[in-house]
Each structure stands twice: as C-alpha cells, then as structure tokens.
Amino acid sequence: MKLGFIGTGNMAGAIMGGVIKSNVFKPEEIIGADLFAPGREKVKELYGINVTDSNKEVIEKSEVVIFSVKPQFYADVIQEVKDLVRPEQLIITIAPGKTLAWLAEQFGKDVKIVRTMPNTPAMVGEGMTAATPNEHVTKEELDYACKILSAFGKVEVVTEHMMDAVVAVSGSSPAYVFMFIEAMADAAVAEGMPRAQAYKFAAQAVLGSAKMVLETGKHPGELKDMVCSPAGTTIEAVGVLEEHGFRSAVIDAMKACVDVAKGM
Ligand SMILES: NC(=O)C1=CN([C@@H]2O[C@H](COP(=O)(O)OP(=O)(O)OC[C@H]3O[C@@H](n4cnc5c(N)ncnc54)[C@H](O)[C@@H]3O)[C@@H](O)[C@H]2O)C=CC1
Ligand SMILES: O=C(O)[C@@H]1CCC=N1
C-alpha cells in the first residue's frame, strides 16, 4: 500500500478524492483506518479504497501515512502506533498547532515528518497546502511529499512559523468564503433570483475574481477599482461594506483563528 490515512473524515476524504482523480494513486493503493464504521464505509463506497478499523494496520502497510484525526486525538494516536513507525516511512500531519517539536517529543524517536496544512478545496483539485519538513526528511522525500500534495492543488514549502497564518488564510478560509457566497446568494434570492441560480452566480463571481488575482498579478485594490464606476453601483456597495466593518471583521476573525491554532 502506498498511501495510508489514520482518520477518514472530511479532510482525508478530500485528499483521497484529489489523489485518485489526478491518478497519482489508484484506489487499491490507498488504505484508511477510522474508529467510526460508517465513516470508513463512506470513503470505501465513495473512493473504492481499502479500509480497516486498525490504525496499526495502516502504519504496517503504508509507505506514506497521513494523520488525519482531530488535533486533540493526535497524542493518543501517536502513542498507539509510534513503535510500529519505520525509519524510512514518511508521516504527513495536517493538524493546526501540532508543531514539529511537539510531534518529535510524542514519537520519541527519529521519524520523517512533513507538517502540512491543506484545505477542503483539495476535493476538486484546487487545494492550497503549506508544507514544512523536519530535519530527517531528505530533499527527495520532500519532493515526493509535494508531489502527493500537488495532486490535489497548489503546494508551497514554508518555514514553520508561518503555519498559524496558513491555517487562517487557507486552511479555515474556505468556510468564510462559503459564508460570503451564501450571503450574496441570500441577497440575490431576496431580489427574486432562484436559489440554485443565485449560488451559481455568486460562486462563479468568486472563482473569476480569485483567478484574476492569481493570473493578472495586479493588486486586489486595483482590480476592485476596475469594477467601481464613478457614481456607479459598486462604489455604493463598497461604502456599505466598509461601514459595516467588512475588512476589520475578516482581520479580527483571522486573528481569532490564529489564536486558537497557537493554543492547539
Ligand atoms: N476540515 C478541514 O477543512 C481541514 C481539517 N484539517 C485538519 O484535518 C484533521 C481532520 O479534520 P477533519 O477531517 O475535518 O475531521 P473529521 O472529524 O471529519 O475526521 C476525523 C476522523 O478521525 C476519526 N477518528 C477519531 N479518533 C480516531 C482514532 N483514534 N483512530 C482513528 N480514527 C479516529 C473520526 O471518526 C473521524 O472520522 C484535523 O486535524 C483538522 O484540524 C486541516 C485542514 C482543513
Ligand atoms: O477548523 C479547524 O480546526 C480545521 C483546521 C483548518 C480547517 N479546519
């Protein structure tokens, strides 16, 4: 087995979907363990991967293992499997706040670890993942980890101190973007647009705007100015957003996110 998951919940499912869709791994090369039987059965049915109730079996059978349980379960899971982790095996972590130093202490031996922070757009091949290796990971192994991670979106290797910012700006941010899309759709529905059509218009506007930032290289403020006609509709909307503290709401929300990540 090439790729193993401990925990087969939302983020693991998104990664499975991404790596299978991009043909980096075949379903039969993937194994996932979960305590919760319906969770295992769901990914087996959706992706055709192998499943088990044994975390130890995943460690024994996989080359690369993604630890995809909630941060509060990391210590127990590491305690359970650490003796079986092999020197050549690559461990990928995806939990906020779980530093390489903390992980090293938990394993209590030399283990190759790449700490990452992915996000759920991995499910559609548009993930954004940050990765930071520990001192036991070679350049070739980091390249291999990045190849896996880039199967479901973009990857950047960052220094570890950036990881808390990454949680706020890409790990958690899909949730804020979904709220923004939902709110815009609500307003369009209030004007009489059918709900499904409203989601399509709002989501495509977000997708197109994101692409403009990535592809034009222009400052987001300049792109905003291009939309705002003098005495037009948009500048009125921008004024109301500022009045309601749109920017500071986003900044404060992300500070709260970082604070929680640091405490994990
Ligand atoms: N959901 C997201 O958007 C993102 C999540 N993450 C991180 O990914 C990790 C997983 O998060 P989610 O997938 O959202 O959570 P989830 O709750 O959907 O999945 C976790 C799974 O682990 C299973 N589990 C719990 N204890 C276990 C154990 N001892 N052994 C085996 N399986 C066990 C649960 O039954 C559950 O299916 C977390 O550390 C989270 O912070 C990172 C980036 C984004
Ligand atoms: O909400 C959480 O804690 C996880 C980490 C990033 C996204 N979801």
TrEMBL record:
What biological function has been recorded for the protein in this entry?
Answer: Catalyzes the reduction of 1-pyrroline-5-carboxylate (PCA) to L-proline.
**Pfam families xref list:** F420_oxidored, P5CR_dimer
Enzyme kind, highest EC tier:
oxidoreductase
UniProt-listed PROSITE patterns = P5CR (PS00521)
Q: What is the designated name of this protein?
A: Pyrroline-5-carboxylate reductase
Keywords attached to this Swiss-Prot or TrEMBL record, sorted alphabetically, are:
Amino-acid biosynthesis, Cytoplasm, NADP, Oxidoreductase, Proline biosynthesis
- Please name the SUPFAM superfamilies in this protein's record: 6-phosphogluconate dehydrogenase C-terminal domain-like, NAD(P)-binding Rossmann-fold domains
Q: Where is the Pyrroline-5-carboxylate reductase dimerisation domain?
A: 160-263
The record's section on NCBIfam families has:
proC (TIGR00112)
What biological-process terms (Gene Ontology) are attached?
L-proline biosynthetic process
Pathway of action? Amino-acid biosynthesis; L-proline biosynthesis; L-proline from L-glutamate 5-semialdehyde: step 1/1
Reaction(s) catalysed (UniProt annotation): L-proline + NADP(+) = (S)-1-pyrroline-5-carboxylate + NADPH + 2 H(+); L-proline + NAD(+) = (S)-1-pyrroline-5-carboxylate + NADH + 2 H(+)
Q: Which domain of life is it from?
A: Bacteria
Q: Which residues bind NADP(+)?
A: I6, G7, T8, G9, N10, M11
InterPro entries linked: 6-PGluconate_DH-like_C_sf, NAD(P)-bd_dom_sf, P5C_Rdtase_cat_N, P5CR-like_CS, P5CR_dimer, Pyrroline-COOH_reductase
| Residue ranges constituting the Pyrroline-5-carboxylate reductase catalytic N-terminal domain according to the UniProt record | 2-96
Family, according to the entry, reads as follows: Belongs to the pyrroline-5-carboxylate reductase family.
Q: Name one GO molecular function term.
A: pyrroline-5-carboxylate reductase activity
